[in-house]
Amino acid sequence: MLRKNPRCRLGCLLFFGMFFSASSLVWAAEMQSPWKFVFSLQGQGKGMALPVALYVDHEKERYYVVDSTGNKLVSFGADGKYLQEFTAEGNLKKPYDMVRLADGSLLVVEKGRNSLTRVDLKNKKTVHTVVKHQGQEVFVDRLEIAGGKVYVLDRSSGRILQLDETLQPAKSYAMPAGAGWLADFKVAEKKVWVLDQKKKQVYSYDENGRPSPAIQLTGVDFPVSLAVDPTGLLYVLDRHRGAIVAFGRNGEVKYQFLTKGQGRDNLYFPQEIRFDHLGRLCVVDEGNSRVMVFKR
Amino acid sequence: MRRLFIILLIFGLFTGLACSVALASEVCYKCHDKKNFTGKFTHGPVSQGKCGDCHNPHVAKYPGLLQGEGAALCYSCHKRAKTEFAKGVVHQPVRDGKCLGCHAPHAAGHDGLLRKNLAETCFVCHQEMAKPQAVSHKPFAQGQCTVCHQPHQAKNDQLLKMEADALCLSCHQQAQGSAGHRGFPRKLSGCLSCHNPHGSSRKGLVRQHLHQPFAEKQCDSCHGAQHNTGSEACLRCHAGMKTTMMAPHNHMFAGTENGCILCHSPHAGDDKKMLKTSGNKVCQPCHQDTFSRYAQSQHRHPPVSSCSECHEVHGSDRLAMLRDDGNQVCSRCHLTQGKFSHPVGDKVIDQRTGQMMTCVTCHDPMGSPHRYHLVLSAKKELCTQCHRSY
Q1: C-alpha angle B91/B97/B100, rounded to 5°?
Q2: How many Cβ atoms sit within 10 Å of the Cβ of residue B319?
Q3: pLDDT in tens, A44-77
Q4: Cα–Cα distance between A94 and B245 in angstroms, integer?
Q5: Which of A49, A200, A232, A251 is most open to solvent, judged by the fewest CB atoms within 10 Å of its CB?
Q6: Does A104 reach chain B within 8 Å, measured CB to CB?
Q7: Cβ(A39)–Cβ(A293) below 8 Å
Q8: Between these two residues, A227 and B217, which has the higher pLDDT value?
């Protein structure tokens, strides 16, 4: 029929042309990152030494950057403008992460003391708490707050602990048998999402501690942090490659962006990613002493 | 008539192609000595005279007039291998696409087209394994590495065919009730914690250095319900280590097991630190990407005996867990650097980061495509990163 009917032949050519164009567009949409650089958070004067964590205060619309080597917390406004530094009068010892509690006080992970340190800003009072779980000292690491509940990663036992008001464990999320070690976790969509650096897997648990099937990550060398996008993607930060890789919920790679280095589109030993109050993706770029903010 | 012509054309092409293949090897052997392409074991295409499967007789992009590069060429026929060899723990030459590191492409005297016998092939890279031991594991002494290890990839660390304990017990079923294991509270496990699977100076392949409580048979000092589990079990005695791990970057592993025993053997070890394996190998299973980059890089720092020469392996406040700042860690060996070269130190600030310039600002010792393992090309963009007016 094709040979006999030139119209049919033309129609077929047109159809295939459109099909391939559409396929190319779909492919390009999958492969291209939608993220555009907005601004960097950088300190004043000597700047930040080695920023290791970011806390976004959704209520006040502020960013707090934890500078571990500088032993300080640095705050920024919603527009990325530097606000102030906080050192607890020089008493912070290797801070590593922080959240703001409902009463306005700050809760800081101090690696140098292995403590959860509550900083009462109004009364200028600091209380150090060494957390214990089942009789053992908890090696406090990443910290999250969601729905008024505080969660901490225990690097010693490999568990996520939900803490009560006295900062003692009220609930524990144990990882599956044979899990590697945990690099980061986030609380999103009423689930606890945990990144296993060794196995390159993401585990998730509902509020009752029920696990979902693990998500296997491919195409990452040294995953250190994850962020959960309400649109259905998981973002994983690859520290050694200086890249962010976007995964579907089944672990399929959607796209990746940024590369290792010290330029504008580079990351150098980045440490954490998280979303801010506007759904922008923030990357704590430790080696470049900055936090980069990207919008869609 | 037209159909007949097409059939004849196809037949002619097919016959011509077949003849050309048959002739190919004969043409090649006019210059290339056929003796070099024959052996006890011959690669299929060579024995069939299909030189053109791998080589282009006229012109090619790759040395040896090869049709493709490295493993990509091999995988064009060994298609299943390409998929299989990407799974799990992958042997470094396989990961690097260096099939010819172990295999001869044309002919060899050994099965699997190995260049040398099995053990000798392994010892080309694993040189330290070749040292004679007072007591040797029988398969090892017989050069039968593949009794325990997979040569290409495996599900298990160290390319073991099975999980380590299961592998040991698959031959040593009698070990459970043996005199040395009397009192073992459960099914034997952690065999490699005490035994060196290749050889040792001690009877029973027990490793050279014994952990003091183990040597004194005081198992209770670490084991038992009254004791802590996880890393705490170690840190109760090794309190100094706990302090070093109280750093932003540390190797206090959050896993389901005691993180210390990822690197250290709790009972017996081959050195005083009781590391599970020697030198850099102890770091490799977790830092495979770094080891691969180092192996594949054209320019890199010369090998050092241990990663801990530059890195603080328990915990560090610095990037990449360096032992000291990016100048001090280098100038311990490079004594004159920093005194006459580009200014570095706390008075010289990298404009991009606000941090002090160090050796690692410009050099990446773990490997780079640029000379002197510079992070960028010195002829192009390296200097202009900061010196923008040049």
Answers
A1: 90
A2: 20
A3: 777 899 999 999 999 999 999 999 999 999 999 9
A4: 12
A5: A232
A6: no
A7: yes
A8: A227
CA–CA gap between residue A140 and residue A151 (Å, rounded): 10
- Residue whose entry in the numeric block shows the structure tokens 């990746």: A256
- Domains of chain B, by residue range, sit at 31-115, 132-173+192-282, 297-385
Classified as helix, coil or strand, A1 is coil
Res A17 pLDDT > 80: no
> What CATH number has the domain spanning A36-295?
2.120.10.30
Closest to A155 measured CA to CA, from A136, A180, A138, A178: A138
Contact with chain B for residue A105, Cβ under 8 A: no
In single-letter form, the type of residue at position A59 comes to E
User: How confident is the model over A238-271, as pLDDT tens digits?
Assistant: 999 999 999 999 999 999 999 999 988 999 999 9
Quickly tell me which residue has 């406040």 as its tokens: B317
Per the CB < 8 A criterion, the answer to whether B203 and B135 are in contact is yes
Q: Taking residues A200-207, report their average pLDDT.
A: 96
Please list every residue in chain A whose beta carbon sits closer than 8 Å to the beta carbon of residue B385. 262-263
Report the alpha-carbon distance of residue A284 to residue A245 in Å, rounded: 15
One DSSP character per residue, A168-199 reads -EEEEEEPPTT--BEEEEEEETTEEEEEETTT
Tokens linked to A89: 């009068």
Q: Taking CA atoms, what residue in A is nearest to B353?
A: A288
| Nearest CA among B220, B160, B212 for reference residue B191 | B160
| Domain locations along chain A | 36-295
Choose from B353, B363, B383, B386 for mutation: most chain A CBs within 10 A. Answer: B353
Binned at pLDDT 50, 70 and 90, residue A4 comes out as low
Q: What's the pLDDT tens digit per position in A126-170?
A: 999 999 998 889 999 999 999 999 999 999 888 999 999 999 999
* pLDDT, tens digit (0-9, with 9 covering 90-100), for B248-258: 999 987 666 78
Are A139 and B252 in contact by the 8 Å Cβ rule? The answer is yes
User: Per residue in B177-208, pLDDT tens?
Assistant: 888 888 787 888 889 889 999 999 999 999 99
Say which residues have a Cβ less than 8 Å from residue B273's Cβ, sequence separation at least 6: B264
Residue of B nearest to A137 (CA): B232
